[in-house]
Amino acid sequence: MESSPRLRSVGGVKRLRGVSAAIALGLVGIGCSEASQSATTTTDGGVVADASSAAGSATSVVDTTTSVARADVPSVVVTYAALESIVEGIVGDAARVEVIIPNGTDPHDFEPSAKDLELMSSSAVVVANGLDLEEGLEDALAEVEKSGVPVFHVADHVTLREGSDDGNGDDESHDHGAEDPHVWLDPLTLAEAVPALAREIGAAIGADLGNAGDAVVSSLQELDKKVAAKISGLESCVVITGHDSLGYFGARYGCEVLGSVIPSFSTAAEATAKNLSELKDLAKAEGVGAIFTELGTPADVAEQLAREVGVEVIEIATHLVPDEGGYDEMMLALADAVVAGLS
């Protein structure tokens, strides 16, 4: 439970949750009391006008109750925080959005609890990344889908980047295969999935979400322009990352991903001495300006590589949504960190 309400945004539109709902519920109670008093005191001349006014007040109260009684609307479960504000932008007040993997937790090695399983099983629909990003959730997602709860895999609805994740790390059991699962790190790739996502959620909760989906797509297109404007200020964008996560980002914004400390799409794999030696030589030859690390990167290995190359280690947030913000803020912060590290 958060100590303070969080502001989430898609395309700059922010939602205040938690405290506002409690305040609204209090106002509903006051409104009901006032409407009741109005109805019982208008029994003499002018009864029609006063009764009409009371009825209008009661209608307003019902509408407000509908908008704030979040427990009475269906739930849509998303597996990780980067998708939360996207889904919230689609569903609006028609559903409440729950997140399984806590913000800031590496999705590659998360294991669900019994409460998480119950949350997914009782939802109208589950939204997952796919391509084994949520490795510890794969069995649970399969069981939930088998029970009749639809599971939407974002990666099934976008143009995938072919990678070279061929088990170069020490632990080949965490090989994701040849397709990169980090689809959310390019707003336009993520936008490809939104129309189908809006239809899937709408069918599950009985709502027409087409217009909301179109609005989210438009906001992602605007976000893409903002990120592109930031990266365009760099003379050169050549990066080394903690693991192979910036493929979509690099392809979209003209950044060459020279290599990764962990040569795998999964942080559950491990770095190898051979890879690090080759990476050091490449970094020196290409004049890399920084080593970008992220959630799941072994800090000591990254720092050693940076010392040998003669550059700084800079942490980027590829899986962490800011405390006061959503997907937009995460992507803009990522762009800012890359620009700062290479400037």
**Discrete helix count:** 11
Number of strands: 10
SSE pattern, N- to C-terminal: EEHHEHEHEHEHHEHEHEHEH
* CATH superfamily descriptor of the largest domain: Nitrogenase molybdenum iron protein domain
Number of domains: 3
- Largest pleated sheet: 4 strands, parallel
Give me the CATH fold name of the largest domain: Rossmann fold
Low-confidence regions:
1-9, 11-69, 165-176
Evaluate the radius of gyration.
24 Å
> Roughly how many Å apart are the termini?
39 Å
Strand order of the biggest β-sheet: 4-3-5-6
- Strand-residue proportion: 5-15%
Give the second-level CATH assignment, the architecture of the largest domain. 3-Layer(aba) Sandwich
Outline:
With 343 residues, the protein is of the alpha/beta class. The protein contains eleven helices and ten strands.
3D architecture notes:
With 343 residues, the chain is α/β, with parallel strands linked by helices. It is built from eleven helices and ten strands. Helix 3 links the parallel strand 3 (75-78) and strand 4. The strands form four sheets. It has a four-stranded parallel sheet, sandwiched between helices. It has a two-stranded antiparallel ribbon with strand order 1-2. It has three domains: 7-70; 73-227, Rossmann fold, CATH 3.40.50.1980; 231-342, Nitrogenase molybdenum iron protein domain (Rossmann fold, 3-Layer(aba) Sandwich). The chain is globular and about 55 Å long.
